[in-house]
Design a protein that fits this description.
about 350 residues, alpha/beta, 10-stranded mixed β-sheet
């Protein structure tokens, strides 16, 4: 039995996937590295097959027709043999020392039959070309090195959220959560982060910088110009987050608040990208998104519209939009998220 399955979605990743895999292979025989070659047209498939031939007890490859990031992650979830599951994108990597510590903890959970649904670790925004790094931690929200329930979780600050890079789910939590990632759609990691949280009962936090999230590759999905160009996909995911999870009826109050906080952040990101787009069409789409939330998810609309972010994103007129952009730029200077 494998302790952890790591799915690595790969599409035309020949230039950087081996760095990612080199850091992952340090995990040894307890892990499964599941490379999903998502219809690549370069040498990605050949590189993946070579790694599987060289490490047959650890690396497995699935070749599939192109389905996008969400399709590749869903393939990983369906085929995982590990008790726990995480995604590592092919242009990112892990810190090997932190990875070893996290794996030791997962081994202990499995060996002792510990009831832990989610392991949370830190991640690092890594702008290697600029020599800038920022580690995102959760020391305020979680007590370290102890099994927690949602009642033990403290409130997140406005800029704190549980992104995909921080999360190692128990595999069966993902499978029973109702998560469904659409094919050929960017930004589906927002669904991956939020929908399964409603099925999580117990958590564990380790204050280690495990995941290096690379920022700076040309055409990367989080670059502002790319996000504006793909704004319809961001809107789609924003809506699906609400459609796949009836947040109003999540029973635990702190669990519900944590997921709502994530929805707030994503709706803010969508709104600010539409404001940054700046055309009448972009602004009309922003109004349409908020109208959709109001009409289809009135309970959630009441929460989001009156949050700090919701107020700022809906300030009237050009001056209001300008203030929203200033807030966004200030946050980006501090946290370097795109």
């Amino acid at each position: 039995m494998k302790v952890l399955t790591i799915t690595v979605p790969c599409y035309n990743s020949q230039g950087y996937m081996e760095h990612c895999l080199t850091t992952l292979i340090s995990g040894g025989e307890d892990i499964e590295i599941l490379i999903v070659d998502d219809g690549s047209t370069d040498d990605t498939a050949a590189i993946a097959d070579r790694w599987a031939a060289e490490h047959p007890s650890v690396v497995r490859v699935i070749h599939q027709e192109n389905a996008g990031h969400g399709g590749a992650v869903m393939t990983g979830i369906r085929n995982a043999s590990g008790v726990y599951f995480r995604v590592v994108d092919s242009d990112d990597w892990v810190d090997e020392d932190a990875f070893a510590r996290a794996l030791d903890r997962l081994r202990t959970f499995v060996r002792e039959g510990a009831d832990v649904d989610l392991l949370v670790t830190n991640y690092i925004y890594d702008k290697t070309e600029l020599g800038r790094k920022r580690e995102i931690h959760y020391k305020r929200a979680f007590r370290e090195n102890t099994v927690l329930t949602w009642d033990d979780v403290r409130r997140f600050r406005p800029w704190e959220n549980l992104l995909m890079h921080a999360l190692i789910f128990r595999t069966d939590v993902l499978r029973r959560s109702g998560l469904e990632l659409p094919k050929h759609t960017f930004y589906v990691d927002n669904l991956y982060c939020s929908v399964p949280l409603a099925s999580v009962r117990t958590l564990y936090y380790m204050d280690v910088g495990l995941y290096h999230y690379f920022i700076g590759r040309e055409g990367q999905s989080v670059q502002e110009a790319t996000m504006i160009r793909r704004i319809d996909q961001q809107i789609t995911v924003n809506k699906l987050m609400m459609e796949q999870l009836d947040l109003e009826h999540v029973p635990n109050e702190r669990q519900r608040e944590t997921i709502l906080h994530y929805h707030d952040m994503i709706t803010t990101v969508t709104s600010i990208m539409l404001i940054r787009g700046g055309t009448p069409e972009h602004l009309a789409k922003k109004d349409a998104l908020w109208a959709y939330i109001r009409d289809e998810h009135p309970w959630e609309y009441g929460k989001l519209r009156h949050s700090l972010f919701g107020v700022v994103m809906n300030l009237p007129g050009r001056a209001g939009r300008g203030f929203a952009v200033l807030c966004y730029r200030a946050a980006n200077r501090i946290f370097s998220f795109n």
